[in-house]
Write a structure and sequence with these properties.
Length: 147
């Protein structure tokens, strides 16, 4: 890819994407999965499911293990997006990886059955939509001529 140094507008877009990816990592501490029984409500964040997976590998059933693996991806995808957005300053690779991370994050959240989706998952989808809009604007800004 052709290296082009950041101008002021592209730098602001890149920094905004970094901030939204950091917010996405913070949102991973909110409950994504919620189960409502007749007696009580249980909810779990991706970080809690991550610790549950490595804390007790033998006592989990297959659906809980699948949800734990999905939660690992929910944590890793924003970290990858943040690292690419913060470290790639001259190429368009950050925009391509960011678009892939947004699509993958939304698809993984939508892989959760709809009766289990909680507030954190909805906020994460909204943040992914905002990041995707910023990514598309950054791609268009990359194609425009510098002054």
């Amino acid at each position: 890819m052709v290296k082009r140094p950041d101008v002021k507008t592209r730098k602001k877009l890149r920094l905004a994407m970094c901030v939204f990816y950091l917010l996405q990592i913070v949102v991973c501490t909110m409950p994504f999965i919620q189960n409502i029984d007749s007696e009580h409500i249980t909810s779990a964040s991706p970080f809690f499911m991550f610790t549950l997976l490595f804390g007790s590998l033998s006592g989990l059933d297959s659906t809980t293990t699948t949800m734990c693996v999905l939660c690992i991806f929910m944590i890793v995808i924003p970290i990858i997006g943040f690292l690419f957005c913060s470290l790639d300053k001259e190429r368009n690779l950050k925009n391509l990886v960011s678009a892939f991370c947004c699509l993958a994050g939304v698809f993984i959240i939508l892989a959760i059955p709809s009766q289990y989706i909680s507030l954190g998952a909805i906020i994460a989808i909204i943040l992914y939509i905002i990041i995707m809009l910023l990514t598309s604007v950054a791609m268009v800004m990359r194609l425009s001529k510098d002054e």
